[in-house]
Design brief:
This protein has one domain (1-50, 81-134). By secondary structure, it is of the alpha+beta class. 17% of the residues lie in helices and 18% in strands.
Length: 134
Amino acid sequence: MAINKNHEFEDLDNIKCSIVEKNVSSDRVQFLKALLTFNKYEVVVVASPAPKAASTPAPAPIAEGEVTPIATPANEPVAPSTFTVGVTDLRFNPTNAVFGRSLHTPDGHVVTLAYWNQEDAVSDDTVPYFEHTK
């Protein structure tokens, strides 16, 4: 059990992992996997479980003489395929890794919050995160 919500653990493919992010797209998985593998973490990716379907209400009873309506199949939306990303190093905490400046990009820069969130294509570590203006 995690001490707080920011440092979660789960068994992914029967491997105890520190959770990096849950319910992420395949593009985000590729980004995180490349970044974390470059930083020498063993990454485990599994498909997130499908969301629980809402229960349908029971049909109302039909009175005598009424016509029974024909049930039409509801077009259920297809759940988007999302993934859970984890690393096998249980000491890893994504918040501490980004703000502690312990992750690096392949071109040698420190990973910033904007780069981690994929808001910037290049990590500009010359300006501290608290001085960034948009």
